[in-house]
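dumping this here before i forget
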Amino acid sequence: MSNHIANRLNNKLRTRLPNLSVSKNLKLIFFSCFVFAFGDGLFTYLLPVYLNQLNASPTDVGMLYAVYYLSLGITPLLGGLLADRFDNKKIIIAGSLFWIPVPLALAIATNWTQLWLPMILYGTFFGSTSICIFIIRSTPQEKTMQAFGLWSASVAFGYVFSPMIGGVIASAVGKQPVFLLATCLYIASILPLIFINKLPKTEPKIQTTSTTRKFSDFKKLIILCSFFALIIFAISLINPLISQYMHESYNQNMFNLGVFGAATSIGWIFFSFTTGKIGDKYSKMSAMLSSIAVCILSFILIATINNFSVLFLASFLSGATRCMFGLVWAITGSAAPEGYTGRWIAISQASIHIVSFGAPVIGGILYEISPYLAFFTTILLLSSLALLATFKRL
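structure:
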């Protein structure tokens, strides 16, 4: 009887969790991402509030995040070119080094105007393209979405408890120790990458399809990249200001903000697995539309209800915004011709961040007029995009 029950439980777990054989390379990469995310989570959810304490207005915060998004948009293009030509392992390690000075700069800053360069470095993101290549080339095609979901979840695990820990440390002894601890974890995250094995080099395949077919495929990819860019633009209008909104409008303290950050990370883990299974079982676009619907619900709850339990639930649901990037990269990377994967992933990364460049500034201006206006604009844009994708069958 006990064996029967155990077998039933085991079968249920197999249906709910990704059934993947993860290579040594991916294990090391995912562990590195977890360590980095743990360090980053110590301060990233509290960063808008910290910037406000450095005399930055909502518009100033938006400008700093705009520079961050601009860096996120430009650097992947370099990463894509490098990823298709050079050793991906070295590219990932080199990309990680740019982040180390960021928390140190935050620790010694006395005014928000000193953080332009650190925000540029914070957005330097050319190593992610090489990570995507490792995932795509190390995973069966029918499990690609779940593999990207597992990567997303490994990052999310790092953010589960670190925001609360960062909030506790900041409340007890100040913010400087938080930034110093984050620096140490940034450095530690590079160590597992040293033991990654190189990927065998692949050459671009000669395309024999007709010119009409090539143009059709190119047009479809451009439409998809534009669609994804508008989604991230809409989310970027309000995301950098949510913790500030909770702090100012609902009087939520730093510890509570850390709890909400942890809830977001738990949601991130849950939706990474869920959307991965939806994408592999049904369609990749179904996974994206599901994420959009969850995001809309989370923004409605945050904007309208001042209750700790509801805000915790809304923060959990907002975790769906975090796994969208993995969905974008999985869709574009899987569709790319062999040997051009890095370039196509880089184009999708660059497009979503370049288009999002002005979003935090616009969001900050809307927020200063009325926080509800910023939330309403985001919800309206996301709803329109979801309807467009549904009826046009993107």
